[in-house]
Design goal:
The protein is mainly alpha-helical. The chain has a single domain, classed as Up-down Bundle (de novo design (two linked rop proteins)). The chain has five helices and no strands. The radius of gyration is 23 Å and the shape is elongated.
């Protein structure tokens, strides 16, 4: 009877070790593609185009930041794309604080920017991972 218990124990131990190895080598499920991130930037660009600004110059400047982020993303320069998106988000907050952008529009734009930034961060993590395919 003790031999049976030892065999079962060894099988359980082997299953746990195998599960751990497979878990460590698994690709993250949350990894995003460049296409998905581009779609998030496009949605942010559309929301920026329809938001109400006090001056068209501020709106155009934000769209320029998004165009730059899109270009960097397509070039595979994910860190630069993230920097552009963070600059966009910071500028939106500044404009809202100055009363140049409606608070509701600013909240919406910042939420969309956070989604795009999170997506690009996923690309950066995947690019930096030694197991990235």
């Amino acid at each position: 009877m003790s031999i049976t218990r030892t065999g079962v124990g060894m099988a359980i131990l082997l299953a746990l070790v195998l599960s751990a190895v497979l878990w460590v080598n698994a690709q993250p499920v949350h990894a995003q593609s460049s296409t998905e991130c581009q779609a998030k930037i496009d949605a942010l660009r559309e929301a920026t185009s329809t938001a109400e600004f006090n001056t068209p110059k501020d709106q155009a400047g934000l769209i320029g930041k998004l165009d730059s982020a899109s270009a960097k993303l397509s070039q595979g320069k994910f860190v630069d794309a993230r920097a552009n998106l963070m600059s966009f988000r910071d500028k939106v907050s500044t404009l809202a604080a100055q009363g140049k952008l409606d608070q509701e529009d600013a909240s919406n734009l910042n939420a969309l920017a956070d989604e795009a930034i999170g997506c690009v961060l996923g690309l950066i993590d995947t690019q930096a991972s030694p197991t990235a395919a």
